[in-house]
Amino acid sequence: MTLAGTAPRRKTRWFVVIFAALAASAFVFSSAGTAFAADTPTPTPSASTAAAQSIGVWVRVAADKSNVAGVKVTITGPKGFNSAVVTGADGKATVPLDKPGTYKVALDASSIPAGAGAVLGTNPRDVSVGVGNQGVPAYFLLGSAATTPSPGSTAKPSPGSTSSGTSFGELALQRVATGLIFGLLLALASIGVSLIYGTTGLNNFAHGELVTFGALVGYIVSGTMHLPGWLGILAALVFGGVFGYLQDLGLWKPLRKRGVGLIPLMIVSIGLSLALRYIYQFVFGPGLLVTPSDNSSFLTLGPVHLRFTDVSSPVVCIVVLLLVAFALLRTRIGKATRAVSDNRSLAAATGINVERVIRIVWVAGGALAGLSGALIGYYQPINWETGGSILLLIFAAVTLGGLGTAFGALIGSLVIGLLVDLSTLFIPSNMKFVAALAALIVILIFRPQGILGRRDRIG
Amino acid sequence: MDLNFIPLAFGQILSPLTVGYALAALGLAVHFGFTGLLNFGQAGFMAVGGYFFAITTVKFDWPLWASLIACVVGAILFALLLGIPTLRLRADYLSIVTIAAAEIVRYTVKTPSISNLTGGSDGINGSSRDFYRLNPLPDIRYGYGVLSYNNNEVWSMIVGWTVVIVAAVLVWQLMRSPWGRIVKGIREDEDAVRSLGKNVTWYKMQSLILGGVLAALGTVLVIIPTSLQPDNYGTQTTFFLYTIVLLGGATTVLGPIIGSIIFWVVLSLSDGILTLLVSNHLLPITSVQQGPIRFIIVGIALMLLVIFRPQGIFGKKREAHFSG
């Protein structure tokens, strides 16, 4: 099949994709964008706390999950312990504790800003702190008394739990928003997988480690070196590309030269994934790493407060994805990439330097994965297996869209992102990946080539 | 200087872990070495077998034989679930679906809302009840020095190695049979076998089921003397199994078994040496950093093996193309 013959048909498809991406972005901004903040309420144990134990207080408005600053919280405990803190701009406050035990956490009702409502659930509340526990959650939700208090609101609200005072429709809208953002982040990583598969035939099982690499670069730059966030993202993009280049230069290119088959190559990639994953753990430790981000409200749309991250990440994703689309459709190297994906031997015969295309694909794939990792780091704490844990979603997305098609990867990612987040409305959040697998199995039964794939690729 | 780790490492030769991994690796050799199926979710088969066995034993109080049947049925169902959509497609699809499914099994059993059935992140203890009741050995200590075992541990080892030997003979005979020739033909050239009028997809499915059942039974032999922990069945377990299979020789029957022994002895020795170096401050790393090192070693060993000696110790070079 020649490139010229398929170009017009594919172009219309791609416009549909780009339109979908733009529509998605519009949706993200018009709906509850702070939902992501609600998704990741992991207490951030402040590094300055020298005490062995601490309680993490977090006060938010139940309806829109916006953080409430300036609330006075009193903590009393054994042996006459008495401490008072005021929540910061992010609605949080950390209380260092020298001794473990049961502490009473009381919100001062008079310090709650007008309009935020009253405390839902028990107040004061007993919080038991074990030896060495940092950031034991004492989360408070505020709302009007009419809304039912959520049972056991000391528990950290997981993505699957229904927050009090939120209707099913609002919750679904939130999930749509978070799902689309997540889908866009997934798309950045998936396009690399798809392009590498298309040009070399390799299913790169170590791609998740490229994502983790980007997340770690972002963490080093803005977390430990305290440089601005955009620099961290840029560094992740650049170093991700360098890492992809070095991988191809040092490992994959020599193996291609040796004529190693595709199945051994896939096994090499799982070995690489295992080694890299634990090298990250060796260097950064097994714990969670939190990239600091500004949690203050950046944009207010009616009742919805958007953090800067909520606005910037989807914008960055969309801009980058549009650039990739432009490069693939309009530039010489993009056309060459598509030609190599279509038919490697034919492309080589027409004078395209296949090795050069593959090298560029590795650099681009690494850079996009790195960017995706760094952006993920702003939404949730990362660790050594952040990328590994989304690998199966990346593969689900790529297969759903059609292995080897860059735009299929984009559509597949948005679908998988939405599916995974919306499924938490009905099933426990631990099982949300089951929905992705179910989708994968269904698509393989009925349309194994994926949404945009071609029939002759699968046999 | 405490050198007890050396005899303890060689004690791994007989340990339940070696038995379980030998069986699971044998199953993987049936999939990957003999049939050419790229199953990246062998840990999923292990977990499914383990959970079917442990839940029916501990939670439902089924007798041993019934739980064993449940375990086998579980593995067969899992193989059908994964095989039906993927086996008629190219090798990559099976690898993607199996690696995803194995992780999903792990996430699912850890779900808090069903933890009264699956034990959540803590797993399930105590599936040894009926098995130890069958133990005919007198209750004394067996062994010598640091390698000393009670009667139940010895009983587990005897039964475990008996199962491994029976399974090995079974697979060896199967691979010499017409069935084995067809399956190996599928590995070499699927279309050629298809052109002979064989139902390739169905043979692949049989192979997937056989290997999956072996993995499930292997897990039962591991969890009886120890316990069932969901995180023992993550992707790293599958990668360990690939290392074992490629070490011994993927296209042989003896390879996975000897591979499992070598793997666990070497891993245990390297852990012991590392602990020695770290505790004597000969290596500038902390004891927390010591944990990941074994995984890094395995990952690199796996890459080197598949690149430089894909046939392993016992395999024949011409059988180890894996062209897919």
From TrEMBL, chain B:
Chief site of localization: membrane
InterPro entries attached to this UniProt entry: ABC_transp_permease, LivM-like
Transmembrane segments: 6-30, 37-58, 64-84, 154-175, 208-228, 291-308
A molecular-function term among this protein's GO annotations: branched-chain amino acid transmembrane transporter activity
UniProt topology in membrane: Multi-pass membrane protein
Keywords attached to this entry: Cell membrane, Membrane, Transmembrane, Transmembrane helix
Protein name, entry field: Branched-chain amino acid ABC transporter permease
Organism: Lacisediminihabitans profunda
